[in-house]
Amino acid sequence: MNPAKRKEIFTRFRTANPAPRTELEYKTPFELLIAVLLSAQATDVSVNKATRELYKVANTPQAMLDLGLDELMGYIQTIGLFRTKAKHVIATCQILVEQHGSEVPTTREALEALPGVGRKTANVVLNTAFGHPTMAVDTHIFRVSNRTGLAPGKDVVVVEHKLLKVIPKEFLHDAHHWLILHGRYTCTARKPHCWNCMIADLCDYKEKTPAPTSV
């Protein structure tokens, strides 16, 4: 895909959605960190449902520690892998209190040192909470990047580096959200909605799906 096509893709994304944001609900960097940690192999809807109640009683590292592991599991038991995630949350909060003054760190290295926080989670926090031009490649972004020809690659790290290289700088801050939303609602895994896609004419995907006909 040539640079002109890439620029046009993101120009259209920006026109349609000038201020994209995560669908996870949060008010502080800490709330975002915990929500993203909980969202692994879970939907944003299920995470939001749990954190709405959880954050009413514990929305700081110390409050989460005071809540305790068993109580925390009760709040997030509807989320997949909740036992493991609860342990990671408690361990993360302990580190935040003891090593970071209860603040969420702003560097990748410090974030990835937190239990349960991998590269993708760190990138989401850096981008969404702190405005860094990072690219958190999840299954949606990986699929869209490969299917469209935007930044094809065999693994998420390769795709991440390619995206950071080829996306024009003016779009980098919001590109993460545009690509996730596009993959979640239009360029879906099994049956992409090519007939309703704003970038279909710029995409390398050849098996275009016809628009549904009304009876």
Describe the structure.
- Helices cover 56% and strands 0% of the residues.
- With 215 residues, it is an all-alpha fold.
- The chain starts with a helix and ends in a 30-residue tail after the last helix.
- Residues 208-215 have low confidence and may be disordered.
- Mass-distribution shape: elongated
Low-confidence blocks of residues: 208-215
Question: Span between N and C termini?
Answer: 38 Å
Largest sheet: none
Radius of gyration: 19 Å
Q: Compute the number of helices.
A: 11
**Structural class computed from helices and strand pairing:** mainly alpha
Annotate the secondary structure layout.
Layout: H1 3-16, H2 29-38, H3 44-57, H4 61-67, H5 69-76, H6 82-99, H7 108-112, H8 119-128, H9 139-148, H10 156-166, H11 172-185
Helix pairs in contact: 2-8, 4-6, 5-6, 9-10, 9-11
Keywords:
single chain; 215 residues; mainly alpha; 11 helices; 56% helix
How would you briefly describe this protein structure?
Helices cover 56% and strands 0% of the residues. It has helices at residues 3-16, 29-38, 44-57, 61-67, 69-76, 82-99, 108-112, 119-128, 139-148, 156-166, 172-185. The longest helix has 18 residues, at 82-99.
